[in-house]
Design a protein that fits this description.
heterodimer; A: seven-stranded mixed β-sheet; 11 helices; 22% strand; globular; B: alpha/beta; Rossmann fold
């Protein structure tokens, strides 16, 4: 069975006055039907640019310079702007961190939702309205009939994000790319939305890419995780395996620095230093300046590969010369 | 014997009244019955912090936790209630003493960029206040600032730089150095690590904890992140629509939350536990949303979202009562049996 979305060697560079920023530098991954992929990275790692590149939403001075994006086997990069626009919002949809990026503040919700349907399909207004109503109900908005006639400012932040998700779901897309959609929301609302997204993907068979900085969110949501550092995937694997036995020192550092894992009051394990500037990445492994295991070998660049036959079977890969082979110890 | 707590807030309330705009004033002149918009941001809260204690304050946005933090820091005057420093009411003190009490509580903000003057070099950002308040002499300023920067993990070269020349984590450190410059005994941290990446967040949390050990600092640690609050706090208070609904020592609160709201909050939080079985695959989140503080529900404010609400909860406001030693909860369920 081939994957719904397949990304191969994607490269997106920004040509700034100070130099070329390789925001996405050779990223490959795939997501299958009804599967959830967590894309985890810190700010500036390039995780959001990956999402934008898939949809062809990168603005100058940025440009996708290489790679293929295959949606059901069709290369999106080979499509013209018109054909791509026909796919966006129909077969592949995006949910942004700030729902006001999706919603037009001066139009009623029903106007915007019906437009999103009729841009892709010839449907009469009543039938379209009915589908909007269903979509709102599906994301847990009470009294959807009434809410359809409201304006975006009449919704709370959480409700607005639900509307944005409902719009993404309208045409039953094959893939949804969600870029930090719950980061700005309260924990209770985040919990509700995670719960609903998980259910919706399972039911509708939509493949979901969840871009986030929050490993805890991913741990309960995703099937598979990619960890992104300085524009490259440094580790990939099934969520439980990756969290229990992270191979890459960066992944390990990220997991250990989450307060929830540590013993209360005990100092947290911390990754020293700060993420490198994308304009002056170190040669070789980009993480080596912050890495406890780095040595002279790390001056050349590691490849993303399985460490042995077992990890190959599990679909795990790591970009490191000195991966950890033992599972993460539980804090004493 | 029993020392009075370092900082004590007694039944403090803060109301914000929205001044009517022109249209409303005209409507009122014409006899329309326009209601005044009053928000009870904080509604009768008691709080006491002992020396060197870390008190966590958690709740959803709009619950009033930041307002309470500002009252604790002395930045906002409470509408009602008293604020005591070392057992003495601050408002009743002479101005010199009041200033001392004010310096002893410093605030660390969520966005250090917004709280650091962009036109000042770190030397002045950090060094101005201690000189003004006579803590160090002007000639000693440089050495004093260098010492503070060293304490928060920045090198002395940072002294000549401006706030925009730092990364987010470094900027937090500058904000912390500035707060420490006036030798406070208590820091009020309002979402102080919320904007930082996890790896940097861990560095800053570790810094807070080591400062606590070195200087005997106490903290009022305000955060929406229950994992962060659990990690740093000795005691945790959970706030909902201006009121404290539960307060308990950290371990007990997380092990056996009493109030249905606390239970719901903890159940809805994604966690990164170290065993796979404890990681949440399915969420059981709190239903509904936090109601508008302009028009809070009668009775227990939480009843519209509470799975265990009884008729009594709709009419009668539950009191915060001691349910076990050091544990307080405001829920009628605790009285039902007695």
């Amino acid at each position: 069975m081939s994957a719904t979305l397949q990304v191969e060697d994607l490269r997106t560079h920004f040509f700034t006055r100070e130099g070329v920023v390789k925001a996405v530098d050779g990223v490959s991954f795939e997501v299958g039907r009804g599967r959830i992929l967590g894309m985890v990275g810190e700010s500036g790692s390039g995780k959001s640019v990956i999402g934008h590149s898939i949809l062809g939403l990168v603005d100058p001075p940025g440009r996708v310079v290489d790679g293929r994006v295959l949606l059901n086997g069709r290369d999106l990069r080979a499509l013209g702007p018109e054909a791509l626009r026909a796919l966006r919002g129909d077969r592949i949809a995006m949910v942004f961190q700030d729902p006001m990026m999706t919603l037009n503040p001066v139009l009623r919700i029903d106007t915007q939702m019906i437009e999103a349907i009729r841009a892709h399909e010839r449907v009469d207004a009543d039938r379209a309205r009915e589908r909007c109503r269903e979509a709102l109900a599906r994301v847990g908005i009470p009294s959807p009939d009434e809410r359809l006639r409201a304006y975006p400012h009449q919704f709370s932040g959480g409700m607005r994000q639900r509307v944005a998700i409902a719009i993404a779901l309208l045409n039953r897309p094959d893939v949804i790319i969600a870029d930090e959609p719950t980061t700005a929301l309260d924990v209770t609302i985040q919990g509700q939305i995670l719960h609903e997204m998980q259910k919706l993907c399972r039911e509708s068979g939509t493949a979901l890419i969840w871009i986030t900085h929050d490993l805890a969110v991913v741990s309960g949501l995703a099937d598979e995780v990619c960890v992104v550092y300085a524009g490259k995937i440094v580790e990939r694997g099934e969520v439980e395996l990756l969290l229990d036995a992270p191979l890459h020192p960066y992944t390990r550092g990220l997991i250990e620095s989450v307060p929830d894992r540590g013993v209360r009051g005990r100092p947290l394990a911390q990754i020293p230093g700060t993420p490198p500037s994308p304009l002056s990445l170190p040669t070789g492994c980009a993480f080596r300046d912050r890495c406890p295991r780095a040595d002279a070998v790390c001056l050349s660049e590691p490849a993303l590969e399985a460490i042995d036959a077992a990890s190959e079977r599990e679909g795990r890969a790591v970009r490191c010369f000195h991966p950890y082979r033992e599972p993460l110890a539980a804090p004493a | 014997m029993n020392d009075p707590p370092l900082l004590e807030l007694q039944c403090v309330s803060k109301r914000f009244v929205k001044t009517p705009d022109a249209a409303e004033r005209i409507a009122r002149l014409l006899g329309a019955n326009a209601r005044e918009h009053i928000v009870h941001a904080v509604d009768g809260v008691d709080l006491a912090l002992a020396r060197g204690e870390v008190l966590g304050l958690a709740g959803e946005s709009g619950c009033g936790k930041s307002t309470l933090g500002r009252i604790a820091a002395g930045l906002l005057e409470p509408t009602r209630g008293t604020r005591r420093w070392r057992g003495r009411e601050v408002a009743a003190q002479a101005s010199a003493e009041r200033r001392r009490a004010r310096l002893a509580v410093q605030m660390i903000f969520q966005d250090p960029y917004a709280s650091l003057n962009p036109r000042l070099r770190v030397e002045d950002l950090v060094g101005e206040a201690p000189v003004v308040h006579g803590i160090v002499r002007r000639e000693e300023k440089r050495a004093y600032v260098a010492e503070l920067l060293d304490r928060v993990g920045l090198d002395a070269g940072a002294m000549r730089r401006f706030a925009h020349q730092f990364s987010g984590g470094q900027r937090s450190r500058v904000g912390i150095a500035r707060a420490l410059a006036v030798k406070p005994e208590l820091l009020v941290c309002d979402e102080a690590v919320a904007a930082l990446d996890v790896s940097i967040q861990a560095q800053v949390l570790n810094l807070f904890m080591s400062l606590r050990e070195q200087l005997g600092l106490g903290y009022l640690f305000i955060s929406h992140d229950l994992g962060v609050v659990r990690h740093v706090s000795d005691r945790v208070m959970i706030m909902y629509l201006g009121k404290i609904v539960e307060s308990a020592p950290t371990a007990e609160l997380y092990a056996s939350p009493n109030h249905p709201y606390t239970q719901g909050l903890l159940a809805g939080v994604p966690r990164l536990a170290h065993s796979a079985s404890k990681r949440r695959r399915a969420y059981a989140p709190v239903q509904g949303e936090i109601p508008s503080p302009l028009d809070p529900p009668p009775g227990c404010h939480y009843h519209p979202r509470c799975p265990q609400a009884m008729p009594r909860c709709r009419t009668e406001v539950p009191k915060l009562i001691e349910i076990a030693p050091l544990r307080y909860s405001a829920c009628h369920l605790n009285e039902a049996g007695s």
